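Re: export button greyed out
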Amino acid sequence: MDHSSLLEDLRNIVGAAHVLTEGDLSAYTRDWRKRAEGTALAVVRPADTEQVAAVVRACSKHGASIVPQGGNTGLAVGAVPDTSGSQVVLSLRRMDKVRALDPANLTITVEAGCILQNLQETAEAAGFLFPLSLAAEGSCTIGGNLGTNAGGTQVVRYGNARELCLGIEVVTAQGEIWNGLTGLRKDNTGYDLRDLFIGSEGTLGVITAATMKLYPLPAARLTAWAAVPSMQAAVDLLGLAHKHLGAGLTGFEVMNQFSLSLVDKHLPQLRVPFWRDYPWCVLVENSDHESEEHARTQFEGLLEAALEAGCVSDAIVAESLAQASTLWHIRESIPMAQAEEGLNIKQDISVPISRIPAFVAETDAALTREIPGVRLVDFGHLGDGNLHYNVQTPEGGDAREFLLKYEDRINALVFDSVAKHEGSISAEHGIGSLKVDKLPSYKSAVALDMMRAIKTALDPQGIMNPGRVLSTQV
Amino acid sequence: MDHSSLLEDLRNIVGAAHVLTEGDLSAYTRDWRKRAEGTALAVVRPADTEQVAAVVRACSKHGASIVPQGGNTGLAVGAVPDTSGSQVVLSLRRMDKVRALDPANLTITVEAGCILQNLQETAEAAGFLFPLSLAAEGSCTIGGNLGTNAGGTQVVRYGNARELCLGIEVVTAQGEIWNGLTGLRKDNTGYDLRDLFIGSEGTLGVITAATMKLYPLPAARLTAWAAVPSMQAAVDLLGLAHKHLGAGLTGFEVMNQFSLSLVDKHLPQLRVPFWRDYPWCVLVENSDHESEEHARTQFEGLLEAALEAGCVSDAIVAESLAQASTLWHIRESIPMAQAEEGLNIKQDISVPISRIPAFVAETDAALTREIPGVRLVDFGHLGDGNLHYNVQTPEGGDAREFLLKYEDRINALVFDSVAKHEGSISAEHGIGSLKVDKLPSYKSAVALDMMRAIKTALDPQGIMNPGRVLSTQV
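Workaround output, generated via the alternate export path:
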């Protein structure tokens, strides 16, 4: 590959100022959790879709592979280059415009580099809700959210990024532009290319813009915190919440005692409710299109029924927005408290909700039995069956040595239990390069064959984010 | 192709009684609207997924093409054989079992041949709602619904068949079984094969089973009927309904005066409200998880705001379930009233909701100007932007002659107007063979190229429902 000739082509397309090759490029080349650092031939920052298409055509001509990147906040090491120094990082961050907001159609059309929080705020300023919500929302982009089919905390009501998207604009691996930016809720004119690109982690093409669904802003959002006697009780409470709150149920998070003890230890000012006396706590959010009063009455009905049924031991309903946001803050502080406590292994698994109690009981028992001193940080989005079933290294001792010795064994124990319960080893983070070697053990060979056939059909040169999702060695 | 050897193989797989070659096979070979009649080499009725896989392998070995079929109620002539006499109709009707119902996971797993209404009733008997609802529900199958991504009347709240499906089991074009029957709401482990098969109309493989979402049964369903002064007023009313009813808004249908005049003429016992004095009427459905009283209060708030805003001229709220079902019956009788009135052209188009008033005004004007005596039956699912913008032949005169002379011109006028307004020429019915020649004029060439590449990748022999969705001539 003739690097200097490719660089010249790229400079001609986007301007020399937007082809970065010198200085500290670690914001683009290093995974933010520092699990991988690569070297880019160049970081290219196109200004519009035509430039993206021309960049892809130039890379195709020179046989250079392309790593599309949004906010570089991914959790599966899918958006940083490898160490070859021959890959081009295609950063979509300059393409951050809101192209259109259509109130009567309840849609907003934005470019891929738009920061999620900006999208949320633009929607809210126009009187609408854009419900996708996750920890990285201040720096992740909607293009990255779609590329990885991001989930987050509102999936129980609104679905993943996939379900919030009506249309996309894509630059194909051949450098052609597909304008699939439809705002239609019904369109049965051929294969669902939209959903094929969503979640493909940049391995089939580059999503450059999207038309997303909006919802009316709820009149009130109320948050409750409940102590529950068991995981089964938490599942029972979820069933009651569906019945009592209907579509008002917009969040349902579960946290075990140890995860809350870490928040209490490292962020004592947050005053975690109930955690000392109960094995599990649950956070429930009720979004109401009528009024706060109505939301409160609904919650009272739910909690009364739940206390009666024995699936709630104690509960509070936030009295103010400030208190509600503190409760959410406790839930969202678990990863930070884990980091304060030391090294840990993050999981992102899902199983059918009905099987979660058995999954947790069996997997807890297996890990405790086989891994000396292990500490389990079980928490996550119970409303959609997604647990961040994390493992903290033992108190004291050498955490690095522990991980070296046990990490593979722990992952195997967790993944095998997930497989037994018909779950997924990556619920919302994707495969990236982190789980690409694990996938063949946990995914049907027939499905993998079809994925490979599609990859070859749409990217015959294999230049789009190679080695991610699918291994390059067959 | 050695027909007798293939037939022998098929008899060995499913039993001679389930390989139909003699007698009246028109229930399988004739489109129910009688727009096409083919001849099958055989109609094969497998009992389970393994038999489906073996049938596909046998057809592949002999190079015979396969037409998958559910209830044969499709509207795009996609599920009957051609006239060659060499195609095998693969009827899924015997595979109609409910495999599992998981209350805590809110899912039901059924075989492809399960009749939609049986699925609805099984869900309801267990205390849940399966919301997919459409005119053919008494005879269409869930496999057909998924193959065509069926829509219907509840899409404004629950989405299409695609959005109601979590996992599918598929027999590939190679006769392999892919078990993708997951009940997970989050699973980011590779390309979205599920949504690729959904809506592919049997051209990529055969859907043999599916895991579908369930919802809590609403406590009450209330229906209102409103007269509105214009299509723009109907769109404004929809916006208010989203705000006032939130997720309670489960149906929003619009009907023009002429469509209601036909119901009044041919089914006078239905006593259509308001139609004489207003250009449009709207049917609104509110599903409430609390109570009928609460639903009524919600409706009163909506109608008060709408009368105030001038987007409703008059309105009634059904006082009983019987009255509500009569109102729905009026809406659903429009196609029958059209048939009574004589020949007509059916459309199934969508445009962004914000553009519907301009689309209807412009297209009405163009048709009235260019097609002498034309009568326009505008009605449909305004809540999701899908209109059945049908055209009735003129009163008196020779309807057949009129169609011969004007049908192509009418379709071109409507489709070109749809394209101008960034809409779809097939919102919920699919492409089948009926619109396969039209598609290249209204779909992006880049998208069509990707579709062809995927078809070739997954069905290299081209045996799955050839000539549907994609033309066999390139």
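Residues 399-420 of chain B form the longest helix (22 residues). The button fix ships in the next patch.
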